[in-house]
Amino acid sequence: MQVIFTKGSKRYGQLRCVRMDGSATQTQMPEQGIAPHDMIHYVVEKRLHIQGGFFAQVRAGADISFSLEHNEASLAVADKTLIWQTESIVESLQSLLWSADTPTYAGFLYLLEQSCGNRKLALPEVSQSDFEHIINEIMELTLEWQGMGEGQSLTLKF
Known about the structure:
Blueprint: E1 2-6, E2 12-18, E3 24-30, H1 37-47, H2 54-59, H3 72-77, H4 80-98, H5 105-118, H6 128-146, E4 153-157
Antiparallel strand pairs: 1-2, 1-4, 2-3
């Protein structure tokens, strides 16, 4: 699946996903200074091979909306625990990236424990190596994203 992030105005960009069968779905995504939330999802889900999260559901046919609009295939891959664990990972990474400090694994684990604890979820396993790869890729994508002008797109594969 192609995952296309298009830089928009200072308020909103666009996320468009084009599946292998040519069908597509899209939505607005808020601009936030760092890599967009959905771009962080992309990096996390790809690196950790999450098969029941947001992009796997979209690839299987769900349409992007405030809450995904599912079809039978996308419901079959959805995993509620993985979805919320992934959201906790993404939110923890965003918090680290918004701070002025250099992101650390210890800081990430602390935020992840808080987020999962608040949601009453088991802590997902994210190794220090995976964390470092994820942070590096997000930082690279953030620099690329920040250097783009309105209307320019970044196309990734999921």
